[in-house]
Amino acid sequence: MSIADIFDSGFRKRNQDHFAAIVKVAMSDGVINDAEKAFLDRLAVKLEISEAKYKSILKNYDSHPINAPHAYERRLERLYDLARMVWADGIDRPDQVVLVEKFCVGLGFNPDNSKYIADKALKLVYYNVDFDEFLDRMKNMNQ
């Protein structure tokens, strides 16, 4: 097995685990609505998840652990990426907030603050801020 094969298989596994974690978060309320399903369909393509693996993950999403980052900045980095994906995906505004709110909880943010955090993240993404500005504004959003 070549180094490229090892890297490629490790990359695919991380993508699958990341996708499964997103599915698990989307299922946190017990249902995946049409907007979430459409988002997951497109995300699977972007992450190069095969159709068979996609169906397997949807069926057995609990078998994949969610490995939320412990570091606050890493959580914000993932939130930034997810909020940009949701925004770029063209999901209706109310569904955007609900989906990103679920991601906030899955990333380890306080559930009581998740709606506020999701709304702020989506507003910053709307204004096309770069990651450094996103990080600064999210860290100082209560000031």
β-sheet strand percentage = under 5%
Overall mean pLDDT: 83
Radius of gyration (CA) equals 15 Å
List the secondary-structure elements in sequence, H or E. HHHHHHH
Task: Count up the helices.
Answer: 7
In angstroms, what separates the terminal alpha carbons? 53 Å
Looking at the structure, what is the overall shape?
globular
Count of β-strands = 0
- In the predicted model, the low-confidence regions spanning at least 5 consecutive residues are 1-7
Secondary structure category: mainly alpha
Which sheet architecture does the biggest sheet show? none
- How helical, in percent, are the residues? 55-70%
Task: Characterise this structure.
- The longest helix is centred in the N-terminal third of the chain and has 24 residues, at 3-26.
- Helix 1 (3-26) packs antiparallel against helix 2 (34-46), helix 1 packs across helix 5 (93-106) and helix 4 packs across helix 7.
- It is built from 7 helices and no strands.
- Mean pLDDT is 83; it is low at 1-7.
- The protein is mostly helical and 143 residues long.
- It has helices at 3-26, 34-46, 51-59, 72-88, 93-106, 114-126, 131-139.
